[in-house]
């Protein structure tokens, strides 16, 4: 069985979609030499017309992609660092996202925004370590955070085929994950998956934290039966899948590497309690409110959700009620 | 496009003028909520530029966008219905004055974020040419927009990748109340020069001059010459926005406004026509607008249950906000 890395799965998805559909093209900074290791080999295969190095002008090239999409193309933009999304939030939210409604359905804006290396890459500090998926889920832009190589492939393919703008966050903590993959296939947007079945508590884990949640579930296996739910897409969210899980376990813990206030973890908890009576108060493990990641490695780690915190949250939730 | 068509140009400026005047009446009557940014006085720019474009060419406009959309060929009746928020409008009542769009005639939309539309048009023209279509585009923006970083980034992309986009600066002397002298360091043409783009200044009050300058630029662009900038010197006769009718902001000397009003594009172009031709165009425009007003006011308001229709092109439906 071939071992596939998460990063190479992204490359495969890009290559397959570019082969399948002439209208797909890539743009981004230093993508012709694959500085981020995602576009490797694509220039040679598809040429400079479809693998376009851009000048450092994120706002213009993000709206350039909107225009290209309005004219029938399917652009995929690679962003070098996650914090650049703050720079282009306006272009994505005010234009790409709003155009279909504002024009009364005259157009579609099928742009994919790919963010390889989202979240903390140790040592990159305050301006390179954000994980802003909650912002896009909040405004209603389709937001994808794959955890595994097969999902990275399948969700990126679906993002490119989607007629709406889609942001694909590839967490830094997942890029080096490798897995045995037999067949690569599109993964539908908006469909979560139970990664590990369990009976006592549902843990919702986002992105690379799925792997931490699985490790914690394994550690606790003798004492607590933990079900791990990977939503894969944060907007639209697979509420049916999650409610089904929590209806069975009666308990909920969310682990999410983004800020606490107004974060996706709060939304997950709110929606679950609107629908399912819980046996114990739900808990969430997140970055602090308003987090800025400090530089020193011990400080950086202290701000991100850790396995110890997750273990403690699960144990408390199980003890309560 | 072929040579000048004085009656055609006159028809366009006259149509925009009367459209704006009727729209202001509808604002005052409460039929257009939210008001409009009148294009009165600037009609020669949209008319001249669009007369030099082909039907398949692309355009993006601004918050002051009615003239751009009409000059490119949108139906005045559906445009007015849009301003009135009716389902019969260009955007089915979802866009209103500042977002009027008609992709069918190459108008990718008026855009209410200053400086935002240039990059969008650049990408659209680039993508169409990549497919082999012989299109060019024109993007309109005000003197206020030349200080927005994204527009300057778009200049760079268009020039670097030789995308045939005409950047049309409608220099009406003010960004809301801020005079251009107080806002623009260097010159507007200098912005283009920095990116190696040819720039031409033109009297925006003369539709034929605008058309001629644009036609020459379009010919060079179609021949592979890359983007250009036109600075159309113009003036808005009326308020920045119809709210000004009520608040009376004091930022333009009345003599300046009066002097500018004497250089009226409708009169300048009208004087080029025999009186009977002009009268016939006037009558035709009047009839068109009377029908447009009737059509707009007769259109049904959208059903509130459809407020989220068209939010997603993929067919995704959003959770609603209630209970
Ligand atoms: C980015 C941005 N900043 C501010 C505004 C508010 N605003 C709307 S129109 C306008 C003035 C624009 O001036 P100019 O570009 O010269 O165009 P004009 O109104 O004169 O046609 C401003 C400041 C906005 N819509 N977008």
From TrEMBL, chain A:
Keywords: Oxidoreductase, Thiamine pyrophosphate. InterPro entries: THDP-binding, Transketo_C/PFOR_II, Transketolase-like_Pyr-bd, Transketolase_C. One of its GO terms (molecular function) is oxidoreductase activity. The keyword Oxidoreductase applies. Its cofactor is thiamine diphosphate. Residues 4-177 form the Transketolase-like pyrimidine-binding domain. It comes from the Bacteria. Pfam families: Transket_pyr (PF02779), Transketolase_C (PF02780). This is Alpha-ketoacid dehydrogenase subunit beta.
TrEMBL record, chain B:
Residues 12-302 form the Dehydrogenase E1 component domain. GO terms for biological process: pyruvate decarboxylation to acetyl-CoA. Keywords: Oxidoreductase, Thiamine pyrophosphate. The keyword Nucleus does not apply. GO terms for molecular function: magnesium ion binding; pyruvate dehydrogenase (acetyl-transferring) activity. The keyword Secreted does not apply. This is Thiamine pyrophosphate-dependent dehydrogenase E1 component subunit alpha.
